[in-house]
Amino acid sequence: MSDNDVVARFAALVRRQARAWQEQDLAAILADYHPDAVFEAPGGLVAQGHTAIGQAALSYFADYHQITARVMVTVADPGGQRGAVEWHWSATHRQTGVREGTPDGIIVELRDGLISRWREYFDTAYDQPEPWAG
């Protein structure tokens, strides 16, 4: 597989994940994850396996809707085992109606073409819902 194919496959995976989160489609989210994958995010969230990752997503969906994941950059290593993503994440808190958002860096590890580890990095104190809208 050429380097361009690796990058294109990884970019497609990232776009599928962005769309699945935006649509709150749990089956589509989990379809790209290896059964024993680990999902990590700031605030101490560590979920391992489809059940735990699914529960974490459902918990998020209970609190937030109108999700936007605007992909800015995707980079993949030539071997197809790792990739990096920068996207801007925005969502509306269901209880307060407040729109929240932040730039988000993600390191992804792949095994058998599926996500084996998804590590998110963002500043939990920073809030900029849609910087491109102003």
Break the fold down into its secondary structure elements and pairings:
Blueprint (H helix, E strand, L loop, with lengths): L2 H20 L3 H6 L1 E9 L3 E4 H15 E13 L5 E12 L5 E13 L2 E8 L13
Parallel strand pairs: 1-6
Antiparallel strand pairs: 1-2, 3-4, 4-5, 5-6
What does this structure look like?
This protein is α+β, with helices and mostly antiparallel strands and 134 residues long. The chain has one domain (3-123): Nuclear Transport Factor 2, Chain: A. Helix content is 31%, strand content 44%. The protein has helices at 3-22, 26-31, 49-63; strands at 33-41, 45-48, 64-76, 82-93, 99-111, 114-121. It has a 6-stranded mixed beta sheet. A hairpin with a 5-residue loop joins β4 and β5. The protein is globular. The chain starts with a helix and ends in a 13-residue tail after the last strand.
